[in-house]
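Run ABC transporter ATP-binding protein through structure prediction, thanks.
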Amino acid sequence: MTSAVVTQKLTKKYGRKTALSDCSLDIPAGHVVGLVGPNGAGKSTLLQLVCGQLNPTAGSLTVLGAPPVTGSPRIGFVAQDTPVYGSLSIEDHLSFGKHLNPAWDDDLARERIERLDLDPKQKAGKLSGGQRAQVALTLAIAKRPELLLLDEPVAALDPLARREFLQGLMEYVAESGTSVVMSSHLVADLERVCDYMIVLVKSKVRVTGEVEELLATHHHVTGARVDPENLGPGRTVIQARHTDVQSSLVVRSSAPIDDPAFSVAGIDLEDLVLAYMSEAANGRDRVLEKQR
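Sure, done. The structure for ABC transporter ATP-binding protein is below.
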């Protein structure tokens, strides 16, 4: 499988503060990848390392088979505040994009601005938050990048603007096949568009894998109180809650759980992510990568 991003023990520190720790990932190309975690987890740091805006403190990183390069035309990046220049018009932004990017698709950019019913003469500073996000996305995809990085692009948008942004993103991905990595702490948004997931908590990767596989191998298990260590081989307890008489577990298992002593149910993506996040937040540093 072709890799879009490969990291080995990637670490970024600011003095004594660790923003990313021993991050080892192999992100496959051709996917829409959700990078999910709470604020301060290291998501923005990872994306900035991938696009060459930051240099790592330790470890290695390759992007599209080569070291990252700042401003690479092969990578499109929309930062967290969906940056545009308030004093410049949309037309000015498109002109700059065309001047700076050799593979610029002017027809794509202008057709998209027209479809969004935006006036090219409008100053970016007069646009709504959703409109600015759409302009920033247009600038990123008109580069015709091989890899598109989106850092919490919809965090500050209202529900309708979020839906319109994500719809536009998926239309572009369906047409282009571009690899996408999108960070967010809004799991519901990622669930709508992503087919691969990375959970990052407290600067460490907790789990990675294709969404379909993750959902198939994680289960809610309830029954009489049990020691999680006694569930048997091939079963990893991600989260455990107990009363005096009952246990409620989130379990990862490569084989069906058919023990009649337990009630077993599926899990949705939000509950799966929250299980990893809550255990990490409680100080249980269970770090699990994709089972191979």
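The chain is about 30% helix and 30% strand.
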